[in-house]
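Re: the 257-residue chain
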Amino acid sequence: MSDKVTALWAQYKENQQIEARDELIIHYAHIVKYVANRLAINLSSVVEKDELISYGIEGLIDAIEKFDHLRNIKFETYAITRIRGAMIDGLRSMDWVPVSVRQKSKELEKIYAQLEARLGRAATDMEVADELGISSENLATMLKEIAATTIISLDDFLPGDEGEEKKKRIIDMLEDNSSADALEMVELGEVKDVLSKSISRLPAKENTVIYLYYYEGLTLKEIGAVLSLSESRISQLHTKAILRLRGSLSKKKYLVM
C-alpha cells in the first residue's frame, strides 16, 4: 500500500473525511471491473456487465466503510468477496433465472442428496439419469440449462437464528476476515467442517474445479485450459459439484433453499 493510500485510509477512518473516502473509491474501482468481468463470463447474456458494475460499486463502498485499515489484511482480498456478494444480491433482486430452471435445479439437487445418501458415495451420471428416468443425454442437457444458477451457489446465505436478520454467506466461511465471539466461532467452525467434508467427498475432477474456481479465482475457461477439457465440460463438472454440495448441506439445514 502506497504512502498516499495509507494516508487516505487514515484521513477517512480517523477523521471521517468524505473526500478521502471518495478518493479511495476511485483508487479501488478497478477491483469492481475485475470482479464483474470474471463473473459475467459465466452468466447468462441477459445480465449486462454494467448492471454488475453498478451493484459492485455499492459493495466497494460498503467494504471501504467496514474495513479496518489497522489490521494486517490486504484490502483487495477483503473487498473482492464483498463486491462479488453485492453483485450476487443484485442478481437475486432481478430474479433473472426463470422459475422452470429453478425447479429443475431443485429437483436435481434433491435427487443427488437422496441418491448419494442411499449409496454412501458420489452418484454417477448414469445412476442420476436412471433415478430421474431419463437418458444420460437428457441429463447433460438439464445440467447445461441450470449451469448459470449454480455459478453463484456458494454465495447462498446461511441462516442465523430463527427470526434473526443477520445472515452469512458460505463463501465467507472460506475466509476468516473478521473477529467473532466464542459461540459464533464454534458455529462457523461447524459449518466450515461440514463444507470441507462435503467438498472432500466430491469426485476428483469436481473437487479440482471447485478449488480452482472458488479458491484460486480462475474462470471456467482457464480451468479448462489447466485440465485440458472444454469450457462446457468444466461448466458441467461445476454444476454437478454444486448440486452435490447443496444437497449435502441442505440435509443439515445449513443452507437456505
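The chain has two domains: 3-94, 99-251.
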